[in-house]
Specification:
heterodimer, A: mainly alpha, 2 strands, B: Arp2/3 complex 21 kDa subunit ARPC3, two-stranded antiparallel sheet
Chain lengths: 252, 202
C-alpha cells in the first residue's frame, strides 16, 4: 500500500513560501489553457513554464521521477490506441487498423498537455500540506462543509490505514495468502466490513469528543494565510503565461 | 478510474463540471454538521480501501467500491468522491483541475443511482437477497463508471474510440470482483452493524 505522507509539501523553496491561495489561483489560471489548447506551440510553452515552476519548487527527485513514470503509463496507453482510431494518413498497418500520422500528432499533443498539467500539480498543489489546502480552499470561497470534510478525511487517513494494516496482519498471522479465489475476495470484503464498522464506531467517539469541546459546526483554521507582494506578482505572472498560451494558440 | 488532465474536450469538461457541482450541492445540502465526522471517517476508510490491490490472475487490480460507497453514504458520495480526488492530487499528483468534474461524476453518479435502485434488496433481512443486492449494486456501479469514462472519451473525438473500447473491456473483470466483494461486505454489515447501511443519505 502506498504511503499517505506528503513529502513534497515540506520544503522551503520559493514556491513553498507563496501563500497557498496564490498557488491555487495560479494553478486554476494555468490549468484552463493547458487543458484546452489544441496546437503544439502553446502546449510546449505550457510544458516549459510548468517545468520552470517545478525547478523552482525543488521536489525530491526520486519521488518525482516515480510519479512522472506513473503518469506516462497513461500517455503510453494513448500512444497505442489514439493513432489506431484517428482518421488520416497511415504510417503503418496493424491488421485491419491503420496507425495514422494525424493520430500520432494528437498523441504527442496530449502527452505535452498531460505532462504540463502533472508538473503544475506537482509544483503548485502537492507543495501545499493538506491541512493548509482545506483552509485555503475555504478562504477562496468553497463550501465550508466540503473543506471540513476534506480536512477530517485527511486527518483520519493515517489512523484508518493503520487500523487496516492491523486487521490485515492478523489475517496473515492466521495463514491468509491472497490468491485469485472467492475465498480471497470474501476475506477482503470481511476485512473491509470490519474496517467500516470500526470507522463508524470511531466516528461516533470523535463526534462526541468534538461536542464535549464545544463544536458548533464551525471549523476554525489555525493556518495564518497572509498575502504578500510576491503572491500578487505570482498570480499576475500566471495570468500573463495563460495569456501567452492563448496568444500562441491564436497564432498557430 | 480516472482520465488525465488535458485529454477531454471543452464541452465534455464543462458538462462534467456542471453535473458534479449539482451532485455535490445536493450531497452537501443533505449532509448536516452532525454527520460530517462520520462521513469524513467513512470516506477515509474508502480511500484506504481503494489502495488495496487484490490479485486477479497474473496481475492485481485495486478496488474502487463506489457501489458500496453509494450504499453507505447515499448522496454524500458526491462530496466524498470529490474530496478523495482532491486528496489524490495532493498525495499522488493524479488527475487535475479541469477533469475534476468529469472524474467525480463518472464515479459518484453510478454510486448514487445503483444504491438508490437496489436499496430495498441491500436492506433486506434475507441474506440471499442482501447478497444479490450487494452484487448488483457493486458490479453495476463499476460497469456504469466504465461506460461513463468511455462516453467522455468518445464525446471528445473519434480518435478516442479504440481507447474507450479498451478501457471498457479492461473494466469488465473488475466489475465481477467488485460485485463479489460488495455482496460479501453488504451481508457482513447487515449482520454486524445494519445501521451503517440503513442511514445513507437518500
Amino acid at each position: 500500500m502506498p504511503g499517505l505522507d506528503t513529502p513534497l509539501s515540506r520544503g522551503d523553496s520559493l514556491v513553498h513560501r507563496l501563500d497557498p491561495r496564490a498557488r491555487l489561483l495560479g494553478f486554476l489560471v494555468f490549468s484552463l489553457p493547458v487543458a484546452l489548447v489544441q496546437s503544439q506551440a502553446p502546449a510546449l510553452l505550457g510544458l516549459a513554464l510548468a517545468a520552470l515552476l517545478l525547478l523552482l519548487s525543488r521536489p525530491a527527485p526520486g519521488l518525482f521521477l516515480r510519479r512522472l513514470a506513473a503518469v506516462n503509463l497513461f500517455t503510453a496507453f494513448l500512444w497505442v490506441f489514439v493513432p489506431l482510431s484517428a482518421p488520416g494518413q497511415a504510417l503503418f498497418h496493424l491488421g485491419p487498423l491503420a496507425y495514422t500520422r494525424e493520430g500520432a500528432a494528437l498523441a504527442l499533443l496530449l502527452t505535452l498537455k498531460i505532462n504540463a498539467a502533472f508538473l503544475a500539480v506537482t509544483a503548485l498543489v502537492a507543495s501545499i500540506a493538506p491541512p493548509e489546502l482545506g483552509c485555503a480552499l475555504q478562504a477562496l470561497g468553497l463550501p465550508e462543509k466540503l473543506c471540513h470534510l476534506l480536512l477530517m478525511t485527511h486527518r483520519y487517513l493515517f489512523v484508518i490505514q493503520r487500523e487496516y494494516q492491523r486487521l490485515f496482519t492478523a489475517a496473515r498471522a492466521r495463514g491468509f495468502v491472497p490468491r485469485t479465489s472467492g475465498h480471497t475476495y470474501r476475506t477482503f470484503a470481511w476485512l473491509l466490513g470490519m474496517l467500516l464498522v470500526k470507522s463508524w464506531d470511531r466516528a461516533e467517539r470523535v463526534h462526541q469528543a468534538m461536542l464535549c469541546r464545544g463544536f458548533t459546526g464551525r471549523f476554525y483554521c489555525l493556518t495564518d494565510l497572509r498575502c504578500r507582494a510576491a503572491d500578487v506578482l505570482f498570480v499576475a505572472a500566471s495570468l500573463a503565461s495563460a495569456a501567452a498560451m492563448v496568444l500562441a494558440e491564436r497564432l498557430a | 478510474m480516472h482520465i488525465s488532465e488535458g485529454v477531454l474536450s471543452a464541452p465534455v469538461l464543462l458538462g462534467g463540471a456542471v453535473a458534479a457541482a449539482a451532485g455535490v450541492a445536493v450531497g452537501l445540502r443533505r449532509l448536516n454538521h452532525d454527520r460530517i465526522p462520520q462521513t469524513a471517517i467513512l470516506s477515509s476508510a474508502f480511500f484506504v480501501a481503494s489502495l488495496i490491490h487484490v490479485p486477479v490472475g497474473f496481475t492485481s487490480a485495486h478496488l474502487i467500491l463506489n457501489g458500496l460507497l453509494g450504499a453507505i453514504l447515499g448522496w454524500a458520495a458526491f462530496p466524498a468522491i470529490l474530496v478523495a480526488l482532491l486528496l489524490q492530487a495532493v498525495l499522488f499528483q493524479f488527475g487535475g483541475l479541469t477533469v475534476l468534474g468529469v472524474n467525480t461524476v463518472t464515479m459518484a453518479l453510478p454510486a448514487v443511482l445503483c444504491a438508490g435502485l437496489f436499496r430495498p434488496l441491500l436492506l433486506s433481512q434475507n441474506t440471499r437477497r442482501a447478497a444479490l443486492g450487494g452484487f448488483l449494486c457493486g458490479s453495476l456501479a463499476v460497469f456504469l463508471s466504465g461506460i461513463l469514462v468511455a462516453l467522455a472519451l468518445i464525446g471528445t473525438g473519434e480518435a478516442f474510440q479504440t481507447a474507450a473500447v479498451a478501457i471498457f473491456l479492461a473494466n469488465l473483470p473488475i466489475t465481477v470482483i467488485e460485485g463479489v466483494v460488495t455482496a460479501a461486505a453488504v451481508v457482513f454489515l447487515g449482520h454486524v452493524k445494519p445501521e451503517i447501511l440503513s442511514s445513507a443519505l437518500t
